[in-house]
Design goal:
Keywords: Cytoplasm, Hydrolase, Metal-binding, Nucleotide metabolism, Nucleus, Zinc. By secondary structure, this protein is an alpha/beta fold. 49% of the residues lie in helices and 13% in strands. Helix 2 packs across helix 3, helix 5 packs parallel to helix 7 and helix 16 runs antiparallel to helix 17.
C-alpha cells in the first residue's frame, strides 16, 4: 500500500482507465507459465540472463533505459500468448486487478499486428478479450472497451490490412472495438505515416487516439491532432514545451491520457514531480491517470494515482475534477457516463468535497 494518507479516498474515487496495453499486463510469472504450457521458447538465459527466472525478469524491468529497450521485452513477452483462452485469462486478470483498485471503466489497447505476424489470428485475440470483458462486466460491473492499436514501426499498408479485417468483421459497427490507436517506437515514426487509415476511420465515425509526445517532441502531438485528427492524446507530456498547443488542447477538451510510473521507468522524466500535472490543472487540460503496462512499470492504476498524490499533494476538489474529466473523455455510452458521474457525486458527498 502506498504512503499517501489519501490512499483509501483515492481507492474509492470512481476511476476510468484509458491507457492500458493488455499485453503490458502480462506478469513475469504468467509469462514463464504460459511459455511452458504453450512450448514457446524464451531467449536463452546464457545470452540474456534476465530470462533466468520470473524474478530476474522482474528485476530487469526496473532498469529500462528507453521506450525501445522496454519494447524489446514487451514483444518477447507477448510471444507466449497463443490461444483465445490465454488472452481471456490475461484480460480477466487485469480487470480483476483494476476492479480491486476501484476502477469502474477501462478502455484497453491491443496490438493485433504483434500477434498475427507470429501466426495468431486477429479473431483468436479478439474472442479471448471479448470473453473477458463480458465476464468482468457480469462479475464486477466493470465496463470496458477495446482499442485496436497500429504498430508505428510497421508500414501503413500493414496497419490498413488489420483495420480492414476489423471493418469487414463488423467490429467497429457492432461495438466489439471502440476505436483505433497508434503505439510502439515513437521517434522517427510520425503520426502522418498513418494519415490514410486515420482518415478512413474518421469518415466512418470511428474513434481515434494516438501515442504522441511520450519520447517525441510536441510536434508529434500537433501532427496527431492536425493530420490524423485524433480525439485523444496518449501520454502528451511534451505539451509543456508548446504553450499555444497546450492552450488549444485545453480549449478543445482533448483528453490526455497520462501514465506517471511509465514515464519514470522509461526515463521520459526522472521523477513524477517533473510531470505537468500542476500545469494541466492550472490550464484546464482534461487528463486521466493510467498504468500503461503495469506488469512492466511497477504499478496498476491506483499506484499511479497515489504516486501523483505523493508528488503533487492535490486537493480532493482537484481529484474530483480529474475523475469527472476522465469520465467525460471516455468512449462509453452517454448513459454509462451519467452513472459514473453520479458515483463521483456520491464520493464527493462521502468525503465532504465542496463543489
Ligand atoms: N508506453 C508505450 N509507448 C509506446 N508503445 C507502447 N506499447 C506499449 N506500451 C507503450
Ligand atoms: Zn502506451
Amino acid at each position: 500500500m502506498c504512503k499517501s494518507p489519501l490512499h483509501q479516498c483515492l481507492h474509492d474515487l470512481p476511476k476510468c482507465e484509458h491507457h492500458l496495453h493488455i499485453e503490458g499486463s502480462l506478469s513475469p510469472s504468467l509469462l514463464f507459465r504460459l511459455a511452458a504450457l504453450n512450448s514457446v521458447p524464451l531467449p536463452d538465459a546464457s545470452i540474456d540472463p534476465s530470462f533466468t527466472s520470473p524474478q530476474t525478469l522482474e528485476d530487469r524491468y526496473t532498469r529500462f533505459t528507453s521506450l525501445n529497450d522496454f519494447l524489446h521485452y514487451y514483444f518477447i513477452g507477448m510471444s507466449v500468448l497463443i490461444t483465445s483462452a490465454d488472452f481471456e485469462s490475461l484480460a480477466y486478470e487485469y480487470f480483476t486487478r483494476a476492479h480491486a483498485d476501484g476502477a469502474l471503466h477501462a478502455e484497453i489497447f491491443f496490438d493485433p499486428q504483434a500477434h498475427t505476424h507470429r501466426g495468431v489470428s486477429y479473431t483468436t485475440v479478439v474472442q479471448g478479450l471479448s470473453a473477458a470483458q463480458k465476464r468482468a462486466e457480469k462479475d464486477f460491473g466493470l465496463t470496458s472497451e477495446l482499442i485496436l492499436c497500429f504498430l508505428r514501426h510497421m508500414s501503413e499498408t500493414d496497419a490498413d490490412v488489420h483495420y480492414q479485417d476489423a471493418v469487414s468483421l463488423g467490429h467497429f459497427s457492432d461495438g466489439t472495438v471502440a476505436g483505433i490507436g497508434l503505439d510502439s517506437s515513437e521517434v522517427g515514426f510520425p503520426p502522418e505515416i498513418f494519415r490514410e487509415v486515420y482518415a478512413s476511420a474518421k469518415a466512418a465515425g470511428i474513434r481515434r487516439t494516438a501515442h504522441a509526445g511520450e519520447e517525441g517532441d510536441s510536434s508529434y502531438i500537433s501532427r496527431a491532432l492536425d493530420i490524423c485528427q485524433v480525439e485523444r492524446i496518449d501520454h502528451g507530456i511534451r505539451l509543456v514545451d508548446n504553450e499555444v498547443l497546450l492552450k488549444r488542447v485545453a480549449r478543445e477538451k482533448t483528453l490526455v491520457t497520462m501514465c506517471p510510473l511509465s514515464n519514470v521507468r522509461l526515463r521520459c522524466v526522472s521523477k513524477v514531480e517533473e510531470l505537468p500535472v500542476r500545469k494541466f490543472l492550472d490550464e484546464g487540460v482534461r487528463f486521466s491517470i493510467n498504468s500503461d503496462d503495469p506488469a512492466y512499470f511497477g504499478g496498476y492504476i491506483l499506484d499511479n494515482y497515489c504516486a501523483v498524490q505523493e508528488a503533487f499533494g492535490l486537493s480532493l476538489k482537484e481529484w474530483r475534477y480529474i475523475a469527472e474529466g476522465a469520465i467525460e473523455g471516455s468512449w462509453c455510452e452517454e448513459g454509462r457516463k451519467k452513472e459514473l458521474l453520479v458515483k463521483v457525486q456520491e464520493w464527493a458527498e462521502k468525503y465532504k468535497v465542496v463543489a
